[in-house]
Predict the structure.
Amino acid sequence: MSAQSETLFIQHFKPSAKPLDYYLKSMSGYQMAKKALAMSQDDIIAEVKKSNLRGRGGAGFPTGMKWGFIPKQSKKPKYLVCNADESEPGTFKDRDIMRYTPHLLIEGMVIAAHAIGANSGFIYIRGEYVVEAKILEKAIEEAYADHYLGKNILGTEFHFDLTVHRGAGAYICGEETALLNSLEGKRGEPRVKPPFPAQAGAFGGPTIVNNVETLAAIPFIMSRGGEWFSKLGKIEKSGGTRLFCVSGHVKKPGVYELPAGSVTLRQLIYDHCGGILGDKKLKAVIPGGSSAPVLTADEIDVIVDIEPLMKIGTMLGSAGILVVSEDYCVVKLIKRITKFYAHESCGQCTPCREGCKWMEDILERIEHGHGREQDLGLLLEIADNINGKTLCALGDAAAGPVTSFVKKFRADFEAHIRGGKCPNA
Amino acid sequence: MPKCIIDGREVEFTPGQNLIEVAKKGGVAIPFFCYHPGLTVVAQCRMCAVEIEKMPKLQTACSTPATEGMVVKTKSPRVLQAQSSTMEFLLINHPLDCPICDKSGECDLQDNSFKHGDAYSRYTEERRTYLDLDMGPVIKKNMNRCIHCTRCIRFGDEIAGIHEMVAVKRGNNTEIVTIDGKQLQTEYAGNYADICPTGSLTLKEFRFKKRVWMLRKTPTVCEGCSRGCNMEIQQDANVIYRCLPRENMAINKYWLCDEGRFNFTYVNSKERIISPMLKEKENLSDADWGTSIDLAKKALEGKKVAVLVGSDMTQEEAALLLQFLPKHLPNSEVFHFGTPGVLSTKDDGHADKILKMKSKTANLNGLEKLGIQGYSKLPTGTNAVFVIRGGRAVLPDLGKVTTVGYGVFMKPQIDRFAAILPGVSFAEKDGTIVNFEGREQKIRRSIVPPGKCKSLSEVLMMWANRKVASGAA
Amino acid sequence: MGTKILSNKFYSQMEKLEPRYPTKVALLLPALHAAQDEFGWLPPEVMDEVAVYIGIHPAQVREVASFYTMYNLKPVGKYHLRFCTNVACCLRGSDELVEHCEKKFGIKCGETTKDRKFTLMEEECLGSCGTAPALMMNDDYYENLDIPKLDQLLERLE
């Protein structure tokens, strides 16, 4: 089943004392930027469109199309921002890209900046990634020294300044407009859209915000062409390989790189990750970071990609796959997830600010045996009153899991309510 | 003009207008809390969610500009459900203290709860509570009642120009504060209470004074400076309780400064002279109107009189006086006074970046239009002064010259007066004032003058008609 | 403002960063990080100095600082232990690690030991799910933990 397939990133995920030397030697570093800087902006965007690269941060928006939204002429400076907030629970791939191949990301950003006409860029990295931020800063320094960044990059007319901007502990800053506010020195509160960042983003200028993995894929596309990249994907509309983050109750958790659309959840869990810890039974899988609605053990024969997962009512998100074995309490799990969203709600909009905490309180009661029969109906209604009614996607991210857990594991909740305690305890 | 359809009705709109405004124009009220036409749109409360054809999700009307042919439903089952759920969310942590809340009766939360809320609550968890915060002399903050609309934060930032009201922490724990219990610095703090859609920010002056539905409202104009902000006097049983701004986009938009808002307090002041008074020997004592006018006449007639008219008087009062003087005090010269250092409209100008003007009286421009010169010093040979003022114009130092005063005076101001004829304040008369831009506006009588206070026309009439044999006091 | 509390190093660091941002307010997060590096937390007078440096109202600094969990608005211990207790770590037994520390130090999460040596906190996802359970101590991650490994780590600390 798991025939060896071509990988782009993962073979390079190893510590290296001199990441620039490694990058130049083993990955033909900065050759793709050289190539791209000689190309027209339209040609690069066309190539990226051809590649079927879709955003790896969670929404899965076609990257080339996003770049195409940037106005050619703009009175205000344009910006390229890398979303390295990687805060969706269950996701840890971008961290590997940044700590092992920082120059790959930098080169991707140079190419992207040229394509959209930005002379200034930021890597917004989550505050907890202190070590990774230092690695990036050092890599950027090296890149400046060797004229891969700064003025007249690689002897061309193109200038591009790149700065690492550290977050400070806020999940919501993974939302692109919250991220931009945070970059501007404000509270990380999402903005009202429209305007979208491509029209008015960072500091009011047209801005593209792309995920780390997305930007890091660009040099590969430049190197071997959009068509080649597109064909790496085994499913329509999804090009390239994907970094899957598998964690929880599997024998071999970690980052796995596989062609997009080439693998089912079952294959990923049992063939690649060695199955469930202690050879227990599978209870549940959250396929796209903790905001994705949960799947039961019967639902894992599904291709792990955007459309197939959407069809069965969940999502690929940031490809963070959380695996739960039979003896773990799912009520405790959804309580923990909901607590997270309540803690991370920025508090701007009513349904999210009030609703997430309300759901957490109810789940907390149920978990500890103080639930009431009507709580389950109430939970579903609260979730429904949040879903689709908030300013940003955090509301949906909080509501979807609650709805799916209550619907799919109703018996577990009822056991808590009727027994007056956790049956697993 | 482009048109859209709201609840089946065709409504014209100006491009750029949001759906709340367009609907309002078409006679449809969309409920909202965080939206305020004078502040940036944040779409946070979610109360104004509406259904728009071809859009899968409900959209917030405040942040959605109308477009040609857009079909909007504001009362569909989905919208009604969303409104009721937003109300539920807003109320789960809101205290049920409406009976003792000053906002009760004019509270957006209460009104929308009445229209869109449920009679019972499904919330059984513990409510979120906070301690009250003192925010200085003007405002008291009750965070329990706050619904996090952030209008106050935006007002501070965008209108008052000071980022002193802030949200700290986040999510369910977000609290709106001034840090470390600091007092509000802005001189426009009263607006915080006006724009608060609940009783979270209240005017200290007004707390527990009066139920708002007892108040009678008179639209008028502020006399605090030469801008002429539109406002409303609210009174009950002839006592003024508060003044609130009235919207006038050309003059003050939605706002009022604290100086103007609290200017009215002198009207009800215990220090105010509300009976005619005369000086006998060294002491002032109450007298009847007849005697007082006789004595005033005696003090002024036949003298070289400087008539000082406060620029807080109306056009009608000043015009009447200009007709009166040639016949009754022919040897007189008229000057206006009001703000030290502002002798004419040339000296007037903006005192801050918001509303305040340098002239601390409302009708400087009007008096100048009537040809009255600003007062700088008494003409040589002047041996009597007739001061006529409302409650605002700052009295110049007149030295020891014989002075008769008509108008609103406080006890400490009248030591050297020979006679005081108590007049009416801006709240007790009708009239016209002309603001710094030349805009004529009406002030309106909202209460009856206290005590024996009389209008200028009554007093001048008495003066003109009273036959006093010369020499007989 | 009288004498400056923040070091010259802070100001030179900020000077270097300033040209990278089109507005000075954008320096707020980096400035708070740098200030916290000096003091271990953000005393009010330090935040006020940051406000003066950036040219904003002190309240604006507080509203931003209090939004983010990594800015310490009260003092923390020499070793600031932040245990991830989010999904992946929780599935891998982070609760036991936290409980173990609470017992060991005699404090609850969010508290600091009396000798100011340890501050214990529950943290949201650290992005270390493949190597769960994980702990962030000061600036570093410690991963694939269990109780014996944690004890070993704690014993090494001065």
Summary: The radius of gyration of chain C is 18 Å.
